Amino acid sequence: MVDLSTEVAGLKLKNPTILASGILGETGKTLERVVRGGAAAVTTKSIGMEPRPGHNNPTIVELDYGLLNAMGLPNPGIEEYKEELSRIISCGVPVFGSIFGKDADEFAELAGLMTDVGISALELNLSCPHASGYGAELGSDPEMVKSITAAVKSATSIPLFVKLTPNTSDIVSLGRAAVDGGSDALVAINTVKGLALEPDLGLPILSNKIGGYSGPGIKPIGLRCVFELGGAELGIPIIGVGGITNGRNVVEYLMAGASAVQIGTAVYSHGISVFSKIITELEEFMKKNNYNSISQLTGLALKR
Q1: What CATH number is given to the structural domain containing 270?
Q2: Neighbours of 161 (CB within 10 A)
Q3: From CA 164, how far away is CA 136, in angstroms rounded?
Q4: Read out DSSP for 90-112?
Q5: For the packed helices 274-288 and 247-256, what is the interaxial angle rounded to 10 degrees?
Q6: Residue among 37, 49, 56, 108 at smallest CA distance from 81
Q7: Strand 210-214 to strand 192-195: parallel, antiparallel, or no bridges (unpaired)?
Q8: How far is it, in rounded angstroms, from Cα 129 to Cα 213?
Q9: In this structure, is residue 1 part of a structural domain?
Q10: What local confidence, expressed as pLDDT, does residue 135 receive?
Q11: What is the distance between the alpha carbons of residues 29 and 24, in angstroms, rounded to a whole number?
């Protein structure tokens, strides 16, 4: 008998797959579809204090091995999104509320408002690479990561996850800062900063020029980041993200040190059914290789 369940910061998941922020997180109905597709938890789109239109089109381009996007954190603002949140929390699985802000005070205020609605955990977006004054611009500084995390920790009693940027020379220092601030888990990684050009015009394709690269092309980077964080023995769970399209990819992230994974671009590319496909493939791998539980896989590569 194979047990696919896992636990992250006291939250029990029936399997290790979670919907990543930024994909189908706009409404309660879309998230309910993801849950029916097999995801054990879902993450909302990133929400700020005020409505934000995001960048002008084009905001996304499909590349050979993934997607490059510069959405610019479009969202309706927390007050309008509360109604959708109230629908989302009844979907039957843990719901992680992703938030972004310009400073520690704004993050803390958002955290309180999100917590009041009844979500299961908060995910701090300290890693978006294409929104000026937000995301990675704050999350690349360990002291800022620590102070924002600490401010949010004091404003909520629910589990707190910090989503880290890969656009750094030392992701372990960012992870350690999040732990020092009181984070209950780390999410690694967000998208990798990149550029796409149109040779016939000699111009960047995205209106923002620089975007965040996701999909299979970044899997080695995500794995490396999880492996480094796991090897640092920071004492909290890691949720691995980046380029996961099949069950073997999940096994790779688990063995690198993750307790669970988030899936985003694969949903865009393969549809919601990708969750059930990945779960089936994961179970088949475990049976074939005589693994009985997710815990047997977690961190295995770190021990060898």
Answers
A1: 3.20.20.70
A2: 27
A3: 8
A4: TSSS-EEEEE--SSHHHHHHHHH
A5: 70
A6: 49
A7: antiparallel
A8: 9
A9: no
A10: 86
A11: 9
Tokens representing residue 103 in the block: 């400073």
C-alpha to C-alpha distances, 170 to 43, 139, 155, 229, 301, nearest whole angstrom: 26, 12, 28, 10, 21
Which residues of the chain are under the pLDDT cut of 50?
none
For 6-21, the DSSP string reads: EEETTEEESSSEEEPT
User: Residues in the chain, how many?
Assistant: 304
| pLDDT (0 to 100) of residue 91 | 80
The confidence score (pLDDT) of residue 90 equals 79
Q: What token pair was written down for 53?
A: 């239109």
Domain range spanning residue 131? 6-302
Paired residues of 6 in beta bridges: 13
The pTM of this model reads: 0.97
The answer to whether residue 139 sits within a structural domain is: yes
| Cβ(144)–Cβ(156) below 8 Å | no
Residue 43 located in a structural domain: yes
The residue type at 42 = V
Closest CA to 5 of 300, 303, 302, 298: 298
Task: Provide the number of structural domains found in the chain.
Answer: 1
- Kindly report the backbone phi and psi dihedral angles of residue 233, in degrees, each rounded to the nearest multiple of 5, phi listed first: 50, 60
Edge-to-edge strand order for the sheet containing 60-63? 60-63, 66-69, 210-214, 192-195
Which residues are known to be catalytic?
128
Residue 237 is predicted with a pLDDT of 98
User: What are the tokens at 206?
Assistant: 């995205």
